[in-house]
């Protein structure tokens, strides 16, 4: 298999339709050779993936400016739980060695750029590359993290929509362990930190005034 995790755009469909089409798609059929429990897991993962994509797409489009950070924190935390479920099961073996040609990554780049605008002044952060093996620190961007997660989830959703359940689960599991799981964990840490600073770094006098006003009839 080749790794096209950064590509959202399918080569034979317009870029502007790719995210919408995948988010709204339903599986064509269920493969008879997939155990029932994996079918359920695949369907539940698809639901969570679509929910994440919907939130990220709406936030990137500027539809929820006042609640963008909390919404992204909630959506990313939820999809991270979904990934943890995939990481907890034994390795999924795909029934076929098939990967769709996703074409260019224009849609992923557009999402990344829109999120970067949203996170102006907050996008860049520092992280330890691998806390288990070294203390090396590198730079990352929240916008890039969210776009990478979206790209990986879309890739699996395309398998799922075509009824290739084992391929969808293999891809989601593999990409969770190798890429988007780490990106989601980092994004959650940064988003939580942003909210903490907003809530806790406020001026004490302003907070006291707000609390006093709230007590007035």
Would you give an account of this structure?
By secondary structure, the protein is mainly alpha-helical. It has a single domain, classed as Up-down Bundle (Four Helix Bundle (Hemerythrin (Met), subunit A)), CATH 1.20.120. 63% of the residues lie in helices and 5% in strands. Strands 1-2 form a two-stranded antiparallel ribbon. Helix 1 crosses helix 2 (36-60), helix 3 (68-88) crosses helix 6 (165-200) and helix 5 runs antiparallel to helix 6 (165-200). The model is unreliable at 1-17 (pLDDT under 50).
User: Architecture in CATH?
Assistant: Up-down Bundle
Instruction: Give start-end ranges of low-pLDDT stretches.
Output: 1-17
Strand content: under 5%
Fraction in helix: 55-70%
Q: SS-based structural class?
A: mainly alpha
| CATH superfamily label | Protein of unknown function DUF5063
The tally of structural domains comes to: 1
The run of helices and strands is: HHHHEEHHH
The order of strands across the largest sheet is 1-2
Main beta sheet strand tally, sense and closure: 2 strands, antiparallel
Rg on CA atoms, Å:
19 Å
Q: Report the CATH topology name.
A: Four Helix Bundle (Hemerythrin (Met), subunit A)
What is the name of the CATH class? Answer: Mainly Alpha
| Number of beta-strand segments | 2
Note the gap between the termini: 65 Å
Separate helix tally? 7
Shape verdict: globular
Mean pLDDT, all residues:
81
């Amino acid at each position: 298999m080749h790794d096209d995790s950064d590509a959202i755009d399918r080569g034979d469909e317009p870029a502007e339709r790719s995210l919408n089409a995948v988010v709204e798609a339903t599986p064509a059929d269920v493969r008879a050779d997939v155990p029932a429990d994996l079918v359920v897991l695949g369907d539940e993962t698809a639901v969570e993936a679509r929910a994440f994509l919907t939130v990220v797409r709406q936030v990137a489009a500027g539809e929820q400016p006042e609640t963008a950070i909390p919404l992204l924190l909630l959506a990313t935390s939820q999809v991270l739980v979904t990934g943890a479920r995939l990481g907890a099961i034994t390795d999924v073996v795909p029934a076929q060695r098939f990967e769709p040609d996703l074409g260019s990554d224009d849609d992923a780049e557009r999402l990344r750029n829109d999120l970067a605008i949203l996170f102006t002044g907050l996008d860049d952060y520092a992280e330890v590359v691998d806390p288990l093996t070294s203390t090396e620190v590198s730079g990352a961007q929240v916008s890039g993290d969210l776009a990478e997660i979206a790209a990986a989830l879309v890739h699996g959703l395309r398998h799922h929509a075509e009824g290739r359940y084992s391929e969808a689960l293999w891809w989601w599991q593999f990409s969770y362990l190798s890429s988007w799981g780490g990106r989601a964990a980092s994004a959650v840490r940064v988003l939580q930190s942003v909210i903490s600073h907003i809530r806790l770094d406020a001026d004490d006098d302003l907070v006291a005034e707000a609390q006093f006003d709230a007590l007035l009839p």
